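Quick one: Methyltransferase type 11 domain-containing protein from Pisum sativum, structure tokens please.
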Amino acid sequence: MGPKSKTKTTDLLQTLEDFTSKDNWDNFFTIRPDSFEWYAEWPHLRDPLLSLLQTLTPPPSSLPILVPACGNSRLSEHLYDAGYTSITNVDFSKVVISNMLRSNIRSRPLMRWRVMDMTAMQFEDDSFGAVIDKGGLDALMEPELGPSLGNKYLSEVKRLLKPGGKFVCLTLAESHVLDILFSTFRLGWKMSVDAIPSNPSNKPSLQTFMVVVEKELSTTVHQITSLLHNTSLHCNSEQALGLRESLQNENQVREKLSSSSDTLYSLEDVQEELTKFSQGRRLQLTLGAQGCSVFSYRAVVLDAEEQSDPFTYHCGVFIVPKIRAPEWLFFSEEGQWMVVRSSKAARLIMVFLDTSHTNATMDEIKKDLSPLVKQLEPNENESGAQIPFVSCTSFPPF
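--- reply ---
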């Protein structure tokens, strides 16, 4: 690409301004209808991507693959030509879908193209064996917009993947993107991180990384497998250092969770059991996501011991911000029972916030949590009383 071509591309990119705007993308794809690769080129992606897909069943021609935010990248074309013909491409730009359909209808007749919002896709649960994202999540995660769109999109990914299916996220691995990936796929997902080879250059540049997560039907917390080595890293030192630091911190979090004596349950595992109140019971579980909420949460459900005075509340929700979560009162089992006694609630649901909730307001959190905690309410609520919400900023609660 010559200097004039580079300048023209830079000018085109500046027309986008907001990577989450449909109108901006329609304008971009109208001005530049030919293919455009945001991150790594196919020669660098081919070997790691095809090696990964070959581990999945069924065989290539029958493996259903979703490519969200496909744009005018040729990634799907290359996969199709490699034998993966059951590909569905999604983008919210009608302009680019029309262009790509016209370009491929004769040479790749089995490939499907859909105009659709990647944060609210119209497919059945467990529809795909692989979801391949080339920069889509990065585009949604505009720092000034917060993680809301990213959370919605990843909830869709979790919903649409078949058990044993894999989500392949090609990303620049910025810290705010890694935060949402690590926290969203922490429970019941295997994860690995690898660097995509790139052409050696005298100038430091941003490198593409491949984050792969595999869907399990379990509550196991796995360590993230790092496939990085110094010879594969051609990026600037700041990008490499940030990625290694994020990996180390996340694996420490996962080690703490996996070595805990607490068993992490899903709502589905314990919902029937929790319809009845049981004195002194304490269960740790995950709430949300999987298409039923914007965020996912870690929670502890505690049923109070018998007391002489009647309980003021049949059930209450106590929200612990990330900055307060390490405190003994909220982290330890003994401290949590102290909070229960102070709450005067027969059942207390302690909800712990993390980095994925950073830019959400408390009202947004409560709205998102309300239908989830309703499912944890004991049946003994003949009066129809509402479930109160408080945060630890107002301790003692209620």
